[in-house]
Amino acid sequence: MKSIELFAGAGGLALGTSIAGFEHESVLEWDANACRTLRANKSRGVVHVRDWEIIEGDVRKYDFRAHADRTLLVCGGPPCQPFSLGGKHRGADDHRNMFPQAVRAVREIRPLAFMFENVKGLLRQNFANYYSYIIHRFRFPDVFPRGDEDWIHHLGRLEKLHTSGRSSGLQYNVVFQLLNAADFGVPQVRQRVFIVGVRADLGVDFSFPSGTHTEDGLLYSKWVSGEYWQRHGIRERDRPLVPDRKRARVERLRSYLPELLGAPWRTVRDAIHDLPRITVGQRSTRVANHFLNPGAKSYAGHTGSPLDEPAKTLKAGDHGVPGGENTLRLDDGQLRYLSVRECARLQTFPDDWTFEGSWTESMRQLGNAVPVTLAETVARRLIDVLASSGAAGCRGSVRRSVR
Hints:
single chain, Rossmann fold, three-stranded mixed β-sheet, globular
């Protein structure tokens, strides 16, 4: 199934969708360091990326019509800073808001489906109207604003069109959901909004996959069965006590069968236990991107990720890693930065996927990335839905609406 990706960054979403079975004709990204990362992996022949056409440049200047009638999926992660909880919260007024370009790509390519993701902050109350506008634009991508019509009035027209059910042009059935990556086997608590649209004329419905991993499963494996500690070779006398705030919950889990709880959430220790041990300021000679930057400090509310929990959400920041973020709190209470390779593990990138640029730039790429496993899981569900429609090998014509 041919596809194209916008705003590819370091390649997390693109890699996940490729593993699921989509074949990217092109991936577009404007950031030079992220493009260096993509090209470095392509030049080394890393699976999937070796077949991508990597296009560095401004997506606003790209003509998507060359992909029409042959590209079945459009996907990407529009820059999240306009809607990020850690950003300036300018939303629709932010010059980095690229959702209009995502809509343009769908309109010009007319794919069978699209998949976009963004930060949880997109769902905040103060962005509610604009978020509704985004969804309606995706539902009716070829219904343009009229003249100097602002987005509020355009939203009103789109809402009337949606409720009337009288559209005869290009139309998509659009669903969205907030997903926690930890629920899908990613060793990180990372909540992302996924927006998926399937062309209405296919007559199929998409629903998001259910999570496979749970916090209850992790609690059970730690303090009921003890399997978690046994697997990591931690003696009983060295195991921590059940936290007071979780004691009642653990007691309740003692009456459960473990197979009813789902797989345990994966932890930082699960993800990095087999990496070479290095000290602060040291670089591994065996594993790429594995070195420990000095200077980690704890700040109020930013005390590092516990070793035996899923990591806290990795952050990017406009000017490098924010203070106290992307750090690991060790068993003895010491704090250190995670290495780039450790962060790559937490984002479920394979070890042969390397990152180019300085430590700060590599961390920014990782902080902005979509976990590969999460992208793959959603994309596999989408492939199943498209295959069930019998549309994977054919393209129905859709009349353009009169605007």
